[in-house]
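Figure caption, in words: inputs first, then the predicted bound structure.
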Amino acid sequence: MKKNRIEFVYNEHESPLTLEAPYITLVAAAKDACGDAYAPYSNFNVGAAVLLEDGTIVKGSNQENASFPLCICAEANVLSNYGSNFKEIPIVALAVSVQGKEQIKDKPISPCGACRQIISEYQNRQEKEIHIILSSESGRTFEIQNIFNILPLSFGHQDL
Ligand code: THU
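Bound structure (tetrahydrodeoxyuridine present):
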């Protein structure tokens, strides 16, 4: 038997304003996208935005349904839009932001397990890293090198 350890290092910022300039704009777009959320059931408005290599920013938000399992997360939404309309241009970074009523205002939103798997598919597909930027309402921001840092021992095309 041997014990394995998985560690990862990420940057924490008190405010998105200390990110690199294109990422400041990207986080602002994710925050803006929260305004497009349709979240009457959770009152948890999530916005996501992807920055493409040519500077284009694509936005998405969570879209809920009275049939709760049909709710679509902001990350899944923005990546479907990207894959349908912009797939020739690689993604540089994905930012996620939140505007909620009762949630802890200082905790950056973290993609759910299903969305981590979806993000990993897009990174594998383009064979280039997608940097992940997670922002709280207070501005506290985590900057993560790529999706596999938060999806260790992942399942992907290489396993099929
Ligand atoms: N949600 C997202 O859009 N992204 C996440 O990373 C976590 C959760 C949405 C799904 C649902 O509409 C609401 O937030 C509450 O779970």
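The chain is about 25% helix and 20% strand.
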